[in-house]
Amino acid sequence: MILRFCLETNGNANPKILENFAELGLRSGGNIKFDLKFRDENLNRAITGIGNKPVHGNFKRKGKYYGQRREVPFLTAATLMVPGYTSRRSEG
């Protein structure tokens, strides 16, 4: 039986904790999925109550693992699609 560690996070966590999760995911063949809510900082703050810069920074730091494993993508991102909020016009 294969057990894989997979973490789904909003990405707004202490970078050291995320690094520990990343190491577990990499060793076990699992992954980390970030929910990147909104590209626009102001919209992210209005909808979620927090800014998105720490989340984007954490996601970028996990990018160092890119290419270390091919069979299961290590790092994935999801984003919300909300009509009227997440269109090209509203997120410019």
Description:
With 92 residues, the protein is an alpha/beta fold. It has one domain (6-91). The chain is built from 4 helices and 3 strands, in the order βαβααβα. A 3-stranded parallel sheet has the order 1-2-3, covered by helices on one side. The mean pLDDT is 84.
Radius of gyration: 14 Å
β-strand number? 3
What's the mean pLDDT score?
84
Tell me the number of helical segments per DSSP (H or I, 4 or more residues long): 4
Low-confidence blocks of residues: none
Oligomer: single chain
Q: What is the strand arrangement across the widest sheet?
A: 1-2-3
Strand content range = 5-15%
Domain count: the total is 1
Name the features.
4 helices, 3-stranded parallel beta sheet, 92 residues, 39% helix, alpha/beta, 3 strands
Provide a brief overview of the structure.
This protein is an alpha/beta fold. The chain has helices spanning 15-28, 41-48, 53-62, 88-91; strands at 6-9, 31-35, 75-78.
How would you summarize the topology of this molecule?
Elements: E1 6-9, H1 15-28, E2 31-35, H2 41-48, H3 53-62, E3 75-78, H4 88-91
Parallel strand pairs: 1-2, 2-3
